[in-house]
Specification:
The chain is an all-alpha fold. Helices cover 67% and strands 0% of the residues. InterPro entries: IS402-like_dom (IPR025161).
Length: 88
Amino acid sequence: MTDAQWALIEPVLMAWRAAHPSVSGHEGNYALREIVNAIRYQGRIGVQWDYLPHDLPPKSATYYYFAKWRDDGTDKTIHDRLRWHLRE
């Protein structure tokens, strides 16, 4: 993900994180940018979640965010922003 792409979606993800605080107070060990990179890798390559490369966050963390964002529509917001950027 380029810096320009990240700049477009970072505010959306920071707002999501602020609206969804962890009930345990645990903020996670992985940067959201790395989570997004792992989700994009899985979508682009089509690899099973369990076979994500070791330099990306693990399946448990990646799929957690993927499922949350899919279910609440955050993924569509991210997609729309990136599509808008590409068309500009």
